[in-house]
Amino acid sequence: MAKKKSANIKLVLNQLVSDIFEKNDNQALNYKQVSAKLNLNDQESRDTILEILKDGKASGVYLEPEKGKFKLKDLQTFIIGHVDMTADGSAYIIPDDEFEKDIRVAPRKLKNALHGDTVKVYVFAKKNGSKRDGEVIEIIKRAKSDFTGVIKISDRFAFVIADDKKMMHDIFVPLADILDARNGQRVLVNLTDWPEGAKNPIGVVKHVLGNQGENNTEMNAILAQYGFPLSFPPQVEKEANAIPEEIPAKEIVNRKDFRKVLTFTIDPADAKDFDDAISYQKLANGNHEIGVHIADVSHYVIQGTDLDKEAYSRATSVYLVDRVIPMLPERLSNGVCSLRPHEDKLCFAAVFELDEQANIVNEWYGRTVIHSDRRFSYEEAQEVIESKQGDYAKEIEKLNELAYILRDRKFKNGAISFESTEVKFKLDEFGKPIGVYVKERKDAHKLIEDYMLLANRKVAEFIAKKVKGEKKLTFVYRVHDSPNMETLNTFATFASRFGYKINTKSDKEIAKSLNYLMADVEGKKEQNILTSLAIRSMAKAIYTTKKTSHYGLAFEYYTHFTSPIRRYPDVMAHRLLQGYLDGGKSADAEFYEVASAHSSAMEKRAAEAERASIKYKQAEYLENNIGSNYKGIISGVTEWGMYVEIEENKCEGMIRLRDISDDFYVLDEKNYCIVGQRKKKKYQLGDEVMIRVKKVDLSKRQIDFTLIPD
């Protein structure tokens, strides 16, 4: 134990010694000078420092330019980054500095760091140009301390096997800390300690999620796994419940009154949180006034309140297969803020005067009060569009006509249309999937989308052009970078196997050829694969205060303004816009950049939770179909197997290479295929194959297939 303690002291001293050289511009110093600067003047410390310097010289960390004096060979021997765990228990540290290369850390050098943690790493000197290795010397911040998993209880203790595949350690739980959990139940456990030298961390059960396999248990486990709370804190609910539904007369006086102008909403049939409404009136000059009225969440959610802090923390609503976990308490999301029909509601609006060619003649931004005349479902609005009959048929027809012009203009300017087949589950009363159906996007969906895009684009443009140069106003933009050309070229090579040519000469040519591909592939078996690969070849859209264009939409300016009930960036956009309309100064850019980065991270996490719920329902759906045969399409290839998506229900599973018995198959990564070593038979991404459902593991959300030979 003393040996271990002395090694730890030496490791800490190693860092302190290195810091001295860095702070002194890497000036050559002897061990006595280093000791003095560290205020360590006892002989034992001096000897240890001399030993560190000599060992460092031998390993290539330090140079000895003159006898007894040392300096660092490379200044930066310590790097801060994030842990990316691998399947064998080792990790790569992804440096915060994007110009630094990843550092490999062996399992025994991780110092109990877990996946995603922010750590400080001591980087060893390179040997023969090999990859850089290092050792974690400090865990700066845990990525998470809560884990979902299955609890195993014995007579003397319990432990939790985490659901997270990158959590390599079981979590020890004293029997006093298991709440009322029973053996084999799914729980949420919080890490409380990890004693030095202990193999496993210690935790306490925070929440008993329930029995494995029960729908509610599994959906709550997914939410908890991705860090979304299962309920609102009492104080937040109390604040929400204290907000009155009645609108004071003095509030209406301060707003533009649209209550006598035709206004309606178009949403999914089962929606309750109506974010947006459209108002329409034909003007005396023959032009069309179209108002995009958005729930005025920022009027009710005041910055700095507990309600606001909770909304900031969540950053987004989460849409699982069978439920919505709202960003705001139900009192607001489905009540006070929701633009329900036949009720006066407060909104923040972008109002446009359009001519017959959908050119903007005038625009206005500000707070409004509306009274929705009708709540349409998408299906009802589509029926009106197709039959030209029903409530407000003439007005909806004109709105649709103008939306078509806006849409065509967008694509001519280089926007990309990614249309993939969306399959939804039919669920029984217990949440079990009993069937699948394809969700179609028709004109009613696109009409609403086009007016939301118009509002988002013009609000961003209004702010960006209000003040130019260094004094530009801080705002939250939604940006999308142009694609990485190497990734896009790889996709173009793959698409060419299906007969599609991607022209990569310019952004407009890329968009044109991608749109041609998307239109041509619609309804074909390879549609989902080519669409998902095309999307993967694009950069990811993020929130930021640093304005750049939106590549996928071909908009120079873009923000998210239209969904504040379910997205926090929209709440920020409303607050900033109102502040500038009132003549306020530019807001704190650093604060909003941090908030934007947080929102981007939470959006990604919500998408992962949604995908996990789909995977679970796919596994649950096929659990009753083990042994059934299906036609599928190869959707992914890896070193250990190939993924196949069943054509009729879009469920995805894996055929493991070891289960294909007619040859020994290996991955050809460059050509997206696996190849038999003797017979040279190929299974290519996009190929059609017949499969049999072999096994379903609900707890891991995994489906295994076997290949049915030709």
From TrEMBL:
CDD domains cross-referenced by the UniProt entry: S1_RNase_R
Keyword Phosphoprotein: no
Reactions performed catalytically: Exonucleolytic cleavage in the 3'- to 5'-direction to yield nucleoside 5'-phosphates
Leading EC class: hydrolase
EC number: 3.1.13.1
UniProt keyword terms in alphabetical order: Cytoplasm, Exonuclease, Hydrolase, Nuclease, RNA-binding
SMART domains: CSP, RNB, S1
UniProt-listed InterPro entries: CSD (IPR011129), CSD2 (IPR040476), NA-bd_OB-fold (IPR012340), RNase_B_OB_dom (IPR013223), RNase_II/R (IPR001900), RNase_II/R_CS (IPR022966), RNase_II/RNase_R (IPR004476), RNase_R (IPR011805)
Gene Ontology MF terms in the entry: exoribonuclease II activity; RNA binding
PANTHER family referenced in this protein's UniProt entry, alphabetically: DIS3-LIKE EXONUCLEASE 2, RIBONUCLEASE
Protein name, entry field: Ribonuclease R
UniProt organism field: Pedobacter yonginense
